[in-house]
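Project standup — Tuesday

K.O.: blocked on the structure for the chain from last sprint. Re-posting the sequence here as requested.
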Amino acid sequence: MTQQTYHHAVIARAIDYIDSTKETQPRLEQVAEAVGLSPTHFQRVFSQWVGVSPKRYQQYLTLDHAKSLLQNRFTLLDTALETGLSGTGRLHDLFLTWEAMSPGEYAAKGKGLEIRWGWFDSPFGEMIVAATQRGICGMGFTAEFGRDWSLADTQGRWPEATFVQDEVFLQPAVNQILGGDTAQLHLIGAPFQIKVWEALLNVPTGHVTTYSEIAKAIGNPKAVRAVGTAVGRNPVSWLIPCHRALRKSGALGGYHWGLPVKRALLAWEGARADASETPSGSRAEDHADPAFAQESA
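H.V.: unblocked you, prediction finished:
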């Protein structure tokens, strides 16, 4: 196991523990013990990956955070490109390029395609990743529904394709994603779905939008329900950020891979976005919650 993989596994366990115990607000020592690290080492690793202390991260897991995002980081998609917001990156300033499968390929349901797939660790738990020779065509998380459901869901999108488990083939692309480098996507979907996914790509990291805003952005303001369905059919979770779509009320809405994962994604991105706005030269640990800093002393 590489150090990166090990750290991803630690962060995934920590995020899951903090989320499941957010009502009791556990102390640093309790979270560190749950992931098998010393408090000092755990806070250093967590702050490195998330950008804020575990204590501060707890604040991002509340429902109030989603409402705060709508108030303070709401993106009007029809002006996002003009204002430059969409150029701020999706994941660690990751630059995504993508192409849609041809109408013929879509109609053929993947017939003639060979799709490689595999299981990988991420900061949000185990994920399934699938790719054609032209790019990543599927990504999702197993935490909520397990491996069997996740694999069946992925294969069901291209019922006529040939699926081959091959983590070795996919590992370089996964390393690029987790490291924040360029990723190529190969998408399969109806034209309406592709439009919705393209609109989602214009929502910057740390920002959110609503289903109605997406409908307006694609020129069909009355199609809010259809937009919600297309968001739910997004085949490349995280990279196409369907987790950044909320209801107007600030409620999280649904999420294909489970609401705990959506909440964790929003909290992680919000924390990193806020941490990136700290004064130049300062460290995330310097801005940790004072009470938490006392615990780690």
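K.O.: great, moving the ticket to review. Strands lie at 96-100, 114-120, 127-132, 135-141, 162-165, 183-187, 209-210, 245-246. The mean pLDDT is 77.
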